[in-house]
Amino acid sequence: MATIPPSRSPIKPLLALSLLWLAIGTQASAGSGDPWADLPAQVDTLLPGVIELRHAIHRHPELGNREFKTAERIARRLRELGFEVQTGVAHTGVVGVLKGGQPGPVVAIRAELDALPLTEQTGLAYASTLRAKDEGNDLRSRGKDVGVMHACGHDAHMAMAIGVAEVLAAHRDALPGTLKLIFQPAEEGPPLGEQGGAALMIKQGVLQAPAPEVIFGIHVTAGTAGTFTLSKARTTASADTFVARITGRQTHAAFPWTGIDPVPVAAQIILAWQTIPSRQSNLSVLPAPVISVGRLEGGDRHNIIPAEIRLEGSIRTISDEQREDVLKRMSNTAQSIAQASGATATVEYLPGGYRSGYNDTALAERMLPVLQQVSGTPVKIDNGTYGADDFAEYARQIPGLFMRMGVTPPALQDKPVWPTHSPGFQVDDPSLATGIKALSLMTLRYMRGEGQ
Questions:
Q1: CATH T-level fold of 11-236+355-447
Q2: What sign has the CA pseudo-torsion 403, 407, 412, 414?
Q3: What is the mean pLDDT of the chain?
Q4: Segment 55-108, tens digit of pLDDT
Q5: Per CATH, which fold does 238-349 belong to?
Q6: Between vectors from CA 129 to CA 127 and to CA 135, what angle results, nearest 5°?
Q7: Residue ranges of the domains in the chain?
Q8: Residue 344 C-beta-side C-alpha neighbours within 13 Å
């Protein structure tokens, strides 16, 4: 996720924030009193418990499709709040439904259960020390004992969703609709050979009975704490993992003409792939794709030309059409260059890739004022990120709104900051209140039909 820059002038937005709370209270009360008129104060009151929950989840992370204890913790809290709870969805997923006392639409909020195979280096009192067997599709670490860490902020996402549950369940009789909380496993990808994530949740009916009209999601990221970045259209990129094998003929390094050297062939392929975004993609239609080789492996000894070179990497594309085109071009390029040197090349695309995501533009426009006022600083409007997230699967089925929220602790703001997916990533606990307020108010705004 992209870094969110610090705000410049919070004074006027803060004044407008106070006016928004007054406006929301006046608009919804209609003389009968709105139980959420002091929603910011309600969130501040429950925040210590939300922080405690996040720390407990952070201390006990679990990998995709293995989030058994995390799911139990979430389900138990939802039941305590009066939700109808379904467990075991898409292996370990949890779905909580809160039917309000007033008629209205169904609104869904999605959070993720899983952590990453990383050894934590934050030094925090609640840092994870757990280890587990990596069953993912990383060829280097698969099957090995690895550290486990909530390095993508999923612990914060779960805690904020529970915070929303507490705020809205406190006045259930006044809730003008139904809240559906989706706690999804395996957002980072299921174990190799298994299904999982958003696609499996949808396949097993998470968007039915009751069927939500819209779905909201927040992703925390490195950036000024409590600030939002929003796209009115494209949100996330598709992501595919590839493994390319360039095969030559092994020989003595002193006599390369007696074999076929795959090393220079691999180098030519890597360079040629970079012409796909710079020379073969129509950049007047879409932003360029990104092709990154993250690992190159081959060889046994310094004076032996290897028989094979293996390349591993990631591809990021902006649309389904661009994705299909890039994958085809990569395979054709590798095969043609290898053939010209007498070598062979294959490019395998591993299962479990992510599709590109888009926000519903009308929904983004409708909810932008809430984000603006809750944050108290200008919301940054951008054209999405090259990061990937399977929230895109939900937003392909129903109108969705996915936003990024900065959570870098102020004490780290002027220091080199660890981003998500790194062993030093940290979350500013007080920022959770901003996310809870945003999700709660967007839910109420939609249920009440405000801003249409």
A1: Aminopeptidase (3.40.630)
A2: positive
A3: 93
A4: 999 999 999 999 999 999 999 999 999 999 999 999 999 999 999 999 999 999
A5: Alpha-Beta Plaits (3.30.70)
A6: 120
A7: 11-236+355-447, 238-349
A8: 4
